Every structure is written in C-alpha cells, then in structure tokens.
C-alpha cells in the first residue's frame, strides 16, 4: 500500500489509540485485507500486521501464539517479534519453550523468507544472551538449524531426510508438518498433497498464501 494511503487511514497517533481500544481494534483485520487486496504488498500493510500482533499478545486473555506469530512474520519488526517470543517462553510449560521459536522460524520459511528466519533466530539468541537466559537445547532446535542450512542449497533429498530423522520432534506440534509442506513448495516446487487445514489454512488463504 502506498505510504500516503496508509497514513490517510491511520496516523500513528490513531494507531496507538486503536491498539488500546478493545471495541475498535477489530477494524484492523479488515484493513489488512483491504491493503492486501488493493495495495502493492501481497500480505497487506506490515505496520497493521505488527499492530494486530502486538494487540493480540498484550491484550488477549488467552494468548494464541500461532495467530500472533502469523501476523508478526508479515510485519518487519524483528526485534519486537523476538522480544515477544522470549516473553512468551517465560510463560510456557517446562520443555515447550522451543516450540515458540521453531513455530516462528517455520512460518517465515513457509513464506519463502529464509533471510528473516535467520535474522529472527539471531535476534532471539542475542537477546537471550543479554538477559542471561538459556537458549533451548533440543532436537527440535537442531532440526531448525539444519533446515536453515539445507534451504540454502538445492537439496530436496536432504530436506526429506531431515523431516524423517526428526519426525518425533516435528510431530510435537501438528502445525509443523503443514508448514514444512509449504516450505517444500516454496523452496523446491513440491506440490502439496492437500491444502492447508484448520485455522492456519483459513488465515493463510485469506491473506493470499495459496
């Protein structure tokens, strides 16, 4: 969307007020759809995605990190996203903090965005070091790291081998296999056997992902 159109819809003062107003925030999803439909950016205004992600995380009684991450990966504020992930990790059940990181990385990769996936990982690691927090050491994190390296090459057989070898870790979240199917499509041209299902599929199609 041209900047002048975005500014006409929302001044930053309006945006701040909108994010705090529980009765008016619902206009943001419609505005995102409008900006995707008629603007220059496929997924709509990054600023609106960031605003909605921040609102969902800070104001929702029960945080749905899938939805929060969905919007953050369509924004541009990697530092804010990393801080949100780390904050959420502090609220997770023991042993589930790595899921939040992996989900975010796989969502970037499902959009074909390897650059920001790597940048987000760096941001999370750096901020955790500064806060003297332990970065999760798990097979799932190993998989994500190996996956990022694999996607830098034309290596579909290695991609498939990684999925098989780390199947038990991937299966910890049903969404991961859906995202990996989309990664295979984006990076290697592998056509999906079935469309994305459930909530994520509905949102993904609405925002032009398929």
UniProtKB/TrEMBL annotation:
GO terms for biological process: protein insertion into ER membrane. One of its GO terms (cellular component) is cytosol. Pfam families: GET4. It comes from the Eukaryota. Gene3D superfamilies: Tetratricopeptide repeat domain. Belongs to the GET4 family. This is Uncharacterized protein.
